[in-house]
Specification:
Elements (H helix, E strand, L loop, with lengths): L1 H11 L10 E7 L2 E8 L4 E8 L4 E5 L6 H9 L3 E6 L11 H8 L3 E3 L11 E3 L5 E3 L4 E7 L8 E7 L8 E8 L2 E2 L2 E2 L12 H15 L8 E4 L17 E2 H7 L8 H8 L10 H10 L4 H6 L3 E2 L1 H10 L4 E5 L3 H6 L5 E3 L17 H8 L5 E5 L5 H9 L7 E3 L2 H7 L8 E3 L4 H8 L4 E5 L3 H6 L6 E2 L5 H4 L8 E5 L4 H12 L3 E5 L2 H8 L11 H17 L1
Parallel strand pairs: 4-5, 5-6, 6-7, 11-14, 16-20, 17-18, 17-19, 19-20, 21-25, 22-23, 22-24, 24-25
Antiparallel strand pairs: 1-2, 2-3, 3-4, 8-9, 9-10, 10-11, 12-13, 14-15
Length: 536
């Protein structure tokens, strides 16, 4: 049976596709370009820094699937001279090891990494430099606070026309974000208290980065939606001067006030972070080898394996919410992967990999089911956080249905009038569940809705009343579909409220606790309305 399934895998698609690059912009100064790549799904930025004249390049904080960088270097005949990591990442698995091998370049990190990570990573001292070309170098600026080894990489020009070296670009990692700074309490700072790390962050920001000239451009590792900090901007880059004036973290010169600010109100820390840190320290294996080692199973074979492991297996269905609701494998969890390889997140989509890593333990056996043709994309996007599927179920739901195997459905509702809202608020039969974050709930919510953030929805199940129907809503319908699938898989009855709080707050403004609609919700509601109308 397994041999037949393996042959089926090979006949489906022997070629692993290169996912969209996420290229967003090029910022230039003299002979040097900074190419910005951004994964909206992980809110993660990576960069190519190249000297066009010298045909040399550096890469900063590469993601797991590295072909996009190598293709760019080959297209411009640039030689890779170094791979730089701003710190040991927790929220994604970096492709630095494979990139180093395939690009024949050294890997650099800042002070404190030696003895913790693989010996293939070279530790640079504070203010040590690596030459990009005769006129440009990368300087290490040790900026601990997010993690002990966190380092800002400062690209500096030193030509005959400059009286002294001129700093141009600061790749700040998780130290300085646009509109925020890195949190001090993640797994990468183990062995230190959040207060100790926050104090170090204050020193790094005020005594190191704020000493740089105002015109130095800032390129962070993350943007809005990342769990590595709070209230991040969605801007791709900024300047030291702009952040000095507008960044809330830089308006608090007092150390004690800053520590209090930084150690409160941080987002939930996903459980996969510990595993990602370990994998980054050891160095991830070849992405292609890992993905090709995942078996592809027929529906019958998958059913047999799932029946033998009812508690340790998770069926991950990556389709969008309406397709999932119409028919899915029993006990499935729905986390829609969205489109464009995770580079862009649309209004009805969300952070696929982050939510998989938040709700599914790395030790679980994950059986992936996707629309036919999307299998390799799903596997790559799981690999970005260090997750390897137990198997792929071939043929999607249609093969499962054709084999006469059981499927389940669950209900969706797109509230349009008072009757719809009343049904969701009837105390004796229904519970309206707001699965957004506590901060989102506190800002505004529907009256009578309970707060149950998606990250904690599994913890809520033991206290749930099986006689009631649970109506889940988020902003647009992405998180609510995940929540509904988790509740239904646990034997409860859940209904996914599509359109989310965006639609609810616009249509039923008087039923919100503030009685107001914010512009963002109004804009999102209009986008969702257009999308739903196009489907009909």
């Amino acid at each position: 049976m397994e041999c037949a399934d393996e042959q089926k895998r090979d006949s489906h698609s022997p070629q692993i596709p290169v996912l969209p690059s996420g290229y967003r912009d090029t910022i230039s100064n003299g002979d040097v370009d900074v190419l910005i790549y951004y994964l909206g799904c992980l809110a993660q930025a990576s960069y190519i820094v190249r000297d066009r004249k010298a045909k040399t390049a550096f890469i900063i904080d590469p993601r797991r699937d590295i072909d996009i960088y190598l293709q760019e270097l080959e297209a411009h005949r640039s030689r890779l001279k170094g791979v730089f990591l701003t710190h040991v990442h927790a929220d994604f698995v970096s492709g630095h090891m494979e990139l180093s091998r395939r690009g024949d370049a050294d890997i650099y990190m800042g002070p404190g990494i030696k003895g913790r990570a693989t010996n293939e990573i070279l530790e640079l001292a504070d203010e040590q430099t690596v030459q990009l070309s005769s006129n440009y170098s990368m300087n290490a600026v040790h900026t601990p606070g997010h993690t002990p080894e966190s380092t800002t990489w400062l690209l500096t020009r030193h030509s005959e026309q400059d009286a002294e070296p001129t700093p141009l670009y600061a790749f700040t990692g998780d130290t300085l974000f646009i509109g925020s700074c890195g949190r001090p309490d993640l797994v990468g700072s183990l062995g230190h208290t959040a207060k100790e790390m926050a104090t170090l962050m204050h020193v790094s920001l005020w005594n190191r980065l704020m000493k740089l000239p105002d015109d130095v451009k800032v390129f962070p590792a993350h943007g809005a939606g990342s769990p590595c900090g709070k209230s991040l901007s969605d801007a791709l880059w900024s300047t030291i001067g702009q952040e000095r004036c507008t960044n809330p973290a830089l308006q608090i010169p007092d150390v004690d006030e800053f520590v209090s600010y930084l150690t409160t109100g941080q987002p939930h820390s996903p459980q996969y972070f510990i595993h990602s840190v370990q994998k980054n320290l050891a160095g991830a294996e070849s992405l292609k080898a890992e993905i090709l080692s995942v078996p592809w199973l027929s529906a019958a074979s998958a059913l047999e394996e799932l029946a033998a492991n009812p508690d340790g297996a998770v069926i991950l269905d990556t389709r969008e919410a309406t397709e999932f609701a119409a028919g899915h494998l029993p006990r499935s969890m729905n986390v829609g992967k969205g489109g464009k390889g995770g580079t862009v997140v649309l209004a009805h989509e969300g952070n696929f990999a982050i939510w998989v890593g938040t709700l599914i333990a790395q030790s679980c056996d994950i059986y992936v089911i996707t629309p036919p043709g999307d299998e390799f994309e799903a596997l790559q996007r799981l690999a970005r956080i260090g997750y390897k599927a137990k198997a792929v179920v071939t043929g999607g739901v249609e093969e499962w249905r054709a084999a006469g195997l059981p499927l389940e459905t669950h209900s969706l509702v797109y509230p349009m009038d008072e009757a719809d809202l009343t049904a969701m608020q009837t105390e004796d039969t229904a519970v309206l569940v707001d699965v957004r974050t506590p901060d989102e709930y506190a800002t505004n919510h529907i009256k009578d809705a309970i707060s149950c953030p998606l990250a904690t929805v599994k913890d809520y199940i033991p206290s749930a009343d099986s006689s009631k129907t649970y109506y889940t809503y988020c902003v647009s319908g992405f998180r609510s579909s995940i929540a509904a699938s988790v509740l239904n898989a646990a034997g409860l009855k859940a209904v996914d409220v599509q359109g989310g709080f965006a639609n609810l707050s616009v249509r039923f403004q008087e039923h919100t606790v503030t009685g107001k609609v914010c512009p963002v919700m109004r804009k999102t509601a209009a986008q969702l309305e257009e999308m739903f109308s196009a489907r009909q």
